[in-house]
Each structure stands twice: as structure tokens, then as C-alpha cells.
Amino acid sequence: MIRRALVILPAALLAVVFAACGNGKDEQFPKSSDPARNIPTEERGTVNVVVAGSAFYAGATNNFVFGITDKNDEPQGGATARATFYDLRDPNNPKPVFQADAIQSAPGVGPVTEHTHPGGEVHKHGGADDNRVGYYVKVKFDHGGPWGIAVEATLKDGTKGVSSVGFLVDEKPAIPAPGQAAPKSDNLTKKDVANIAEIDSGTPPNDMHDVKIKDAIAAGRPMVIVFSTPAFCTSRFCGPVNEEVEALQAKYRDRVDFVHIEIWRSFDRKELNPTAREWLIRPDGGLSEPFVYIVGKNGVIYDRYEGPVAANILEPSVQAVADGGVYR
Length: 328
Prior knowledge:
The chain is of the alpha+beta class. It folds into two domains: 6-169, no CATH class; 190-322, Glutaredoxin, CATH 3.40.30.10. It has helices at residues 11-21, 213-218, 238-252, 274-280, 311-322, and strands at residues 6-8, 47-51, 61-70, 80-87, 95-101, 103-105, 113-116, 122-125, 134-140, 145-154, 160-169, 223-227, 257-261, 264-266, 271-272, 287-288, 291-295, 301-306. The chain has a four-stranded antiparallel sheet, covered by helices on one side. The protein is globular. The protein starts with 5 loop residues before the first strand and ends in a 6-residue tail after the last helix. Mean pLDDT is 82; it is low at 1-27 and 30-36.
């Protein structure tokens, strides 16, 4: 099942989130093409929408991600999906605000391919379940508080359905966000450790441990930073997302620095990596992963993605900073 990519979430926040979200089946907002709420009976309970992110905020564009499952809660790739976002401040009068078609993002999906790193090490990519995907849409929330999403989906087998779920939007970013200065982190690199396994739980480890974030900022180098923990990822997307970032590294490494940051310094002791804490811990103590940050040459965050993000979603922003683009 596609799950919200939460690693740590305080009990108090869990209570708020679950109160807002329901189970995606019982709450029915107006169908986007039918304000009278006349959702056809045959389209109820055939699909479910699952919000796969948790760091949404008002006043700027968010990369909103959700998953789709069938009536048996099996994740579904290859669907077409149109999302309508609702203002739920008045729970008795859901108000449609924004509508857009979602773009599928499928990290790690496709045939197995080999990628050779500059040092000669060969990594294999791909081969993941083609239903393990997310769906992204860009949306700007004009206020914080309770919101809802209704998704009209057609699965690849032709099944049609409508599903809705609620979620919360913060008034302002709880963690570093586009338009803000990137933290000048003194992250460990492979030169700082005796064994690469100390800073990379992947098997094999990736080739994104040569650069300190603070040094790239000082040098005016754009960056892609992936926060993930492949060996311990609760969402099952960390390894595939790392693969997608590695594929972009192979294409842009001469112009962009790529950095992988593990979430845990010690998973067994539940000791967080200080750099992950610096970037991802919310004021209430919550933490989500995986995240991919894209930083411009001026040290300002250009874009940010949470959840199952693939190269087709990431590349426009990576291309932009590689060409010298900065957040405006």
C-alpha cells in the first residue's frame, strides 16, 4: 500500500492529521464537474486517494503528491487523475478552489539498467513495481488550515472512480522551503569517515558523498540534495528516489553538485543525522522523508519535492539551476 512518508510524527500531530483526513472513502466532496455532489454510485468505493506528503504551506506553489489505490487498497500506476482542491474551513460547505491534471511520477520503475560511476563502480537501476508511483500537481494554497482533495481517476484497466480526503496546510513553511536560504550544513563526506556505510545505508552505496553543502554554497555551485535512508525507509521510496537522483547526476554532474544525506546517524539508537535534523525537523518534532531539495547558485532553495519523485518531475528544476537559474 502507498503510505504517507512519515518517519517521526508526534502523537499530538497524529491526532490532528487523522481527524482531518478520514480514510478517503467516507468523505465525499463535490465532484469537480458536479457541484451538486451527485457522484455516480458506481464510481464510489472503486478507487482511493492517499496523500503522500505532509509539508504543505500557504502563500507559495507546493509540489503536492498523492497515491491512488484500487478498491482492494492495491497501489495503482498508469492511472489518469484530475485533482480538485477544496477549502474546508466551513465543513458544511466544501468550496472548490483549484483543479489540475496530475502527472505520474514512478521512481525506480522500468527495465533494469546499469550505470557506471566515474570510479568504475557499476550500479543497477530500475526494476521496481510499476504500480509503486505517485501523482504530482502544483498548487498554491492561499491560506493555512483544513483543505481537501477530490480525485477523479481512471485506472489502467478502465475502472473509473472518485475519492476524497482531507489534509492540513501550514500558514508558513515548517521546514526550509523555496525562496529561503539553504542551511549551510557541514555534512559528513566520504573523506570524513572510515567506512562509507557510516553515511550511506544503500547496497551498494551511491556516489553522492563528495561535497559538503556549506562548501557548494560558498563556491556558488547549484545543488541537488536528497534526504533518504534506503535501508530503513518506511515509505519504500527512498532507494528508488535515490536512483532517480543518481540518473540526473550522471547527466548534470559537471554543472551541479549532488549530495545524499541519510536520515539516521544511528538507526538502532534512533539518533538523527544532524544535517537531516537541520533541514527536516519541524517545530513540533515531526519529520518526513524522502525529500529532494534543489538549490540555486546563489544558495537559495529553488525547488523542493517530498515523496515518490522521479526524474521526469525533478529534471525541469535541475536543468534550470544547471543553466544558472535562481528562485524568483
